[in-house]
Amino acid sequence: MSGATTTRRRLDGLSAAGLLLPTLLVLALVIGYPLLLAVNLSLFSDPIAGVPEFVGADNYARALWGADAGRFWSAAATTGGFTLVVVALELAVGLAMALFMNQLKRGKAFARVCVLVPWAVPTAVATVLWQWMFSTGGVVNALTGTETLWTGAEGPARAAVVIIDVWKTAPFVALLLLAGLQTIPGETYEAAKVDGAGAWKRFTRVTLPMLAPATAVAVLFRILDALRMYDVPAILTNGANGTTTLSLLTQQLAIGQVRVGYGSALSTLTFLLIFLVALAFIRATGARIAGGRS
Predict the structure, then answer these.
(1) Exposure string for 88-106, b = 16+ CB within 10 A, e = fewer
(2) At 54, is the secondary structure helix, strand, or coil?
(3) How many domains does the chain have?
(4) Which CATH number is 222's domain given?
(5) Rg of the chain in Å (alpha carbons)
(6) Entry pTM
(7) pLDDT tens for each residue of the chain, 294 residues long
């Protein structure tokens, strides 16, 4: 009997591997090959004055502590700052939207459709629309009664990038959290009421802990997306006034200045940063989420 069970498990494993193989091949083609190509290019000099020469880790040293370290670390700090601010705001706004939609007795489907509209608009289109609204004679200044040049100074430019990103992506967070809220049994809230828990205690002792898995997924997705932010600052300011992110800096150097080797090194460093942040986040939250589920 044990031999038959072992054989069955092996067959199930082979069947699972066969089903996963096409997906793994596609991932290797669209992710693995470009990554390996970027790493290979990063080991050579820029082909501006002739044939590229093998320089080893010189491009990485140039970015981390060499002549271009200032620009790299400035872009890294800008990327990290944007990530912290937009993820925090999107989580707060998305949670408020999810709680509101979850309380609706009628029109939940219509509310979800309305919430999806900003997220469905292409980022480039949304940024151009907001660029018009942020102009000196635009809607934002008309509503606030000011004449702020939003893209003309560091503070307003960064605030504009944050506003656009939060408006665009908070609905995505809201839908993920709404799905998590709908999995919480109603009996849990009834039991908390019987025990004398008020609305705030039910929110902090029941809703937030049981919403932890959905919250972790939403935060992880948004961190990964925010760390590679490119299109909003590229269209809105082209990186001016303290809005140059790592992805934008990589594009400006690799494409704009044809520094392929150095740009490939920056793209590899950006990938490593995103990978390490994702790994640290999963390690920090995985055990707690698993415990909450059990």
Answers:
(1) ebbbebbbebbbebbeeee
(2) strand
(3) 1
(4) 1.10.3720.10
(5) 24
(6) 0.86
(7) 456 677 778 877 778 778 888 888 888 888 888 888 888 988 888 776 567 788 888 999 999 998 889 999 999 999 999 999 999 999 999 999 999 998 888 877 888 888 888 888 999 999 999 999 998 888 898 888 888 888 888 999 999 999 999 999 999 999 999 999 988 888 888 888 887 878 888 888 888 889 998 999 999 999 999 999 999 999 999 988 999 999 999 999 888 777 888 889 999 999 999 999 989 998 888 755 554 444
| CA dihedral angle for residue 47, residue 50, residue 56, residue 61, rounded to 10 degrees | -60
Q: How many CB atoms lie within 10 A of CB 230?
A: 16
**Distance in angstroms (rounded) separating the CA atoms of residues 293 and 290:** 5
Amino acid sitting at position 149: L
Structural domain contains residue 192: yes
**What is the extent of the structural domain holding 171?**
71-293
Residue identified by tokens 């069970």 is 5
Please report whether residue 46 resides in a domain: no
Count of Cβ atoms closer than 10 Å to residue 116 Cβ? 14
Residue 9 lies in a domain: no
Q: Give alpha helix (H) positions in 104-185.
A: 108-120, 123-133, 139-144, 154-181
Residue 44 and residue 23: Cα distance in Å, rounded? 32
**What CA–CA distance (Å, rounded) separates 133 from 58?**
44
Does residue 158 lie within any of the structural domains? yes
